Amino acid sequence: MAPDKGFARDHAIVVGSGHAGLLAARVLSEHFNTVTVVERDRVDPDTTFRAGVPQGYHPHFLLAKGAQIIGELFPGLLEEIADAGSPFYDYGENIRLKFPAGWTPKTTTGIQIQGFSRPFLEQRIRRRLLELPNVTLADGFTVDRPLFDGSSGAVTGVIGRDADGEEECLYADAVVVATGRGSRLDHWLRGADLPMPTVKSIDVKVSYTSRIYQAPPDDGWKVTFAYVYAPDVRRGGGVLELESGTAMALAMGIGEEGCPPDEAEFARFAKSLPFSGMANYIDGHEPLSELHRFVDHGDWWLQVHRMRRWPEGLLVAGDALCRFNPIYAQGLTVAALHAKALAATLDNGGDAREYHRRAAKVTLTPWLMASSSDLLWDSGRSPGILARLSHWHLDRVITRIPGDPDLFNRFAHVQHMLSGAGTLATPGVLWRLAARPRPAVQLRV
Ligand SMILES: Cc1cc2nc3c(=O)[nH]c(=O)nc-3n(C[C@H](O)[C@H](O)[C@H](O)COP(=O)(O)OP(=O)(O)OC[C@H]3O[C@@H](n4cnc5c(N)ncnc54)[C@H](O)[C@@H]3O)c2cc1C
């Protein structure tokens, strides 16, 4: 493959076989002679839940934009997933979300989505990726740090340990760090005497307590969910359909409002929600799994794109670059956008700095969407005028959604990253937002 201005294109390494790593490897496979995905966990074609991705025990809702990119990278994969037990359905016809002002209206949005667990999606993507002749997976291999060229400073590979603890160097022209939330990139950079990029962060304690059940929701909806909402609604939860007629129940809390992984507490939490659907569901169905808890700390973005000096060939993607409060369900889609940014960079013969600039550009809108609400929860920070204004606008939208299917449709397109935020700020919409909200026709729950 033709060498370009950035780095040679013989061998690329991806560290981490999570969602971002798999998608990055797919992109690299078109530009490098060989690609090695290095993964700490032992992984075989059937692996689903695993230690390296503990968030896999919790609901992972894939936004339509993320699904669209996955479909482009792996043609036919979403249809294959549908055949394997996760049929497509319309977002507005099959999902109902409870906001403080009421339920989202039942309406056709044209947004086709699917329900599955995170490990199921990852397994299907991994299988398709490993069918490519120039991609291999080195599992059971823990990367300890990248290697750098002494004179140019460019990355030259990684050093790590295999499953028997044997140290080994793997050489490459480019290394994508896709090590997720537990990324040790800061440590790796310090160890190589390289400056650490600055970090933007918003501290919000979010906890998820989840359990998988044997039966799909039986109330006619694929997802029924009461949302947390800044700054006052700190408890949420509901039931989401997954693959093959299973479902997941989730108790979500902000700050100290979370639910311990205890059966009685889970039932009590469900009863405390402003609808009876989750309590009825968990009362009437057999669990397939234990209760799992995950505590997260909001939004975090490594500003690699602002670095004047950065090792050539060292690329950071997915949660290792930017992670979001999971309640907005953006992480899988942003990782897919990072893969697109990588593809555009490689098509352009670009370098690591170009990639990080492109990745920052696609990260910005989701970051603003998450941070404008999360700043209202971050007790240590006072939200700036931009965050206040954008939350004020969101408040108006959310308040009117129950009685305005067109507004919900627009909101859904923005939420799924299919339209820009301007869709919710056209003159016609602003006029409606200024008017008194129409009363919603509320369904009995
Ligand atoms: C509770 C929770 C719920 C979420 N819900 C949603 C949702 O509904 N929708 C959504 O879009 N996103 C959601 N997310 C975000 C989503 O999980 C992440 O954005 C996504 O997993 C990012 O993928 P990644 O590949 O960057 O990281 P990961 O998927 O975490 O993968 C990192 C991989 O790197 C490997 N690794 C780490 N260190 C090393 C090393 N040194 N050597 C070798 N391998 C290594 C790990 O074993 C792992 O396989 C949620 C997150 C959480 C915490």
Automatic annotation (TrEMBL):
Gene3D superfamilies (UniProt xref): FAD/NAD(P)-binding domain (3.50.50.60)
Protein name: Uncharacterized protein
Organism: Catenulispora yoronensis
